[in-house]
Amino acid sequence: MHPPLTLHKHPMCVEIIEQFQRCHMEHPIGKFFGECTELKIKLDKCFRQEKALKRKANFEESKKFKERLQAYRKEENAASNGE
Predict the structure, then answer these.
(1) Which domain of life does this protein belong to (predicted)?
(2) Are 9 and 39 in contact (CB under 8 A)?
């Protein structure tokens, strides 16, 4: 099962999504018997790549947030000990 095929949410996979949707339109019965399977496999790979990029970006963002939080805690700790 794949996520909803909205083009604006999957900018990396637009071309494959369009091909996949076209295949389903051109082969309304054949899609149940593997007519569009190759495109489905390509689509799944594209979604995996897209997710890996998002995961990496989120990890980097969380790393920066943790660093800012630790710096803030050090400042607060120093300020409260200095009083």
Answers:
(1) Eukaryota
(2) no
Three-state SS for 32? helix
Q: What residue has token string 């947030």?
A: 65
Give the separation between CA 60 and CA 57, rounded to whole angstroms: 5
Contact yes or no for 40/16 (Cβ under 8 A):
no
Residues in the chain, overall count: 83
Residue 36's φ and ψ, nearest 5 degrees, are -110, 20
Single pTM value for the model: 0.72
pLDDT tens for each residue of 24-49: 999 999 989 999 999 999 999 999 99
